[in-house]
Amino acid sequence: TPRPDSIKDSYDFIIIGGGTAGLTVANRLTENIRTSVLVIEAGDTDVGNLNLEVPFFCTRTVPFTSVDWNFTTVPQTNLNGRSLIYPRGFVLGGSSSVNFLAYTRGSEDDWDRFASVTDDPGWSWNQILPFFLKVRDCLTVQILLSELTSLNQSEKLTPPADGHDTTGEIIPSYHGFDGLVGDSLPGFPSPLDPMVIATTTEDPEFPFNIDINSGSPLGVGWAMATVSGGVRSSSATSYFRPFSNRPNLDLLLNMRVTRVLPGNSDSSTLQLQVVEIAQSRDGPRIQIKANKEIILSAGAVKTPQILLLSGIGPSEDLNAMGIPVVLDSPSVGQNLTDHPFVSQSWSVTGNNTFETAERDPVIAAQQFAEWNSTRTGPLTAITNQVGWLRVANLTSQYPDPASGPDSPHFELLFANGLVLTAVPPTGNFLTIAGADVSPTSHGTITLQSTDPFDAPLIDPNFLATDVDFFVMRQAMRSAQRFISNSAWSTYIIAPSFNGTTDDELDAFLRENIQSTFHPIGTAAMSAQDANYGVVNPDLTLRGATGLRIVDASVFPFIPAAHTQACVYALAERAADLVKATWNLP
Ligand SMILES: Cc1cc2nc3c(=O)[nH]c(=O)nc-3n(C[C@H](O)[C@H](O)[C@H](O)COP(=O)(O)OP(=O)(O)OC[C@H]3O[C@@H](n4cnc5c(N)ncnc54)[C@H](O)[C@@H]3O)c2cc1C
Questions:
Q1: Tell me, what's the ipTM?
Q2: Which of 95, 96, 240, when mutated, tests ligand 1's pocket best, judged by the most ligand atoms within 8 Å of its CB?
Q3: Which architecture does CATH list for 133-232+337-515?
Q4: Radius of gyration of the chain (CA)
Q5: What percent of the chain has pLDDT over 70?
Q6: 20 lines ligand 1 (CB under 6 A)
């Protein structure tokens, strides 16, 4: 890693943010030795932090840690004025280094909707699928790399971590083997597995789906995670580290981009060329030039902040902050969309739940020792099944908020214990989290000050619509029906929440909704001739040259999915678009 004083004055491409998308693009652009790339990352290296390696320790990565931006939302109007935690990865790999590892692609309808609102068939499911396949676990490449660099990885890389036969848990033809990010089916059996699977055969509300990543996610199926060889696979471990000695790839850590600026071009169109960085609030500002493009990949919270600080945003907001308007772009920071979720838990008769190890340091130490020596055991998995479901009677009351009929309204996630909750002294628990995955509420990212070292104001504006409340109530009731099936009759003891009426459920939701940490849409792409949107379908900034945005902020709608796999696919296609623009091999 060069020090700030040893970086060059200019690069072909400067990538702002070494996160999920940023490192994907950096990798693909530097495949060509003649292309120089600088990645600027505000956080530190991910190396040496066990919480970022051990899959189950994803429960420890956030909130309020050294690898989290430690954001909170503004008080949420519809959630009793509560301010929610809003973690984002502040570390190489960005949120892919700290997230909860779920690997889900969204539905065919989701991607086809992106294609239709952007008028670009390149974003349709059929045309994006190859980019998903490109990002999948590549055993061949990883084994080759491990042989070349003695990374001590060989057959342990075989997904899943316990090496069980995955027949009937996935359709292999929907998955690729030539990408870089590792993923796998659950690597350790959970006591819940037989009960969840039995419910799918017993209750037609919850049909078994053999592969929820096929583009048709509806039903309940086996969850995939970005775990490879029992270890987290992030953009840092997959797209960056094995390639970090490329001479045309420079990385600056612990350095914050404060704004982007026009170059000296006398062209009549705005040409953004310069990236300004600083190490601290009062530290000196350094400017570096991008000869070809600036790629803005700071994520759905920080990307709009950087644009606004650069004078790119709604002119009235910029004027109010005293920031000179460089480009009036009214959609910057608008359309923030995220998945609200709520957890319900039940006390259970089983004693082999997360609580057991959390209360007993000897068991916890045994589990870690197993992971440490063989990368196997309970610490390799967090959730083994996921359900993507629709509310049966929704469309008789509301316009369908989902992207299409094969897209879910809500998600159920099953966990073998309490998650992100203080563990009580006694009892064992089951948690089912329910999330509204086609929300219609939208919020904003705005500036609270002109200081780039201050956090922006984050308002996801959760549950601002009746239909979002309706979907969340149905998700809660669906979870309650799920465990009322006979498979659970000897397992469930009692619910922690007894409400049944709409009012009781709404009160619970207002008091307990949290973010799933999937913000998107704050620099959305739109069709070339649209009168809204921040970037064109090829992700170039509308109204300027020299800057492309590649991260979760460009999704115009939220996919009905945990967002990382979608970001990897987006970034893979973006890299192809950049290469095509500049005729790069
Ligand atoms: C706690 C948590 C759990 C999640 N769980 C899941 C999950 O289980 N499955 C899933 O699919 N998705 C999950 N997500 C969401 C998913 O990880 C994100 O959607 C995705 O990683 C976003 O990618 P990105 O490239 O847009 O942004 P990021 O990966 O966040 O990258 C942005 C990068 O830019 C850097 N940066 C920001 N500002 C600056 C600046 N001014 N200067 C320099 N660098 C800057 C950041 O430090 C960061 O490294 C989770 C997210 C979080 C935070």
A1: 1.00
A2: 95
A3: 2-Layer Sandwich (3.30)
A4: 23
A5: 94
A6: yes
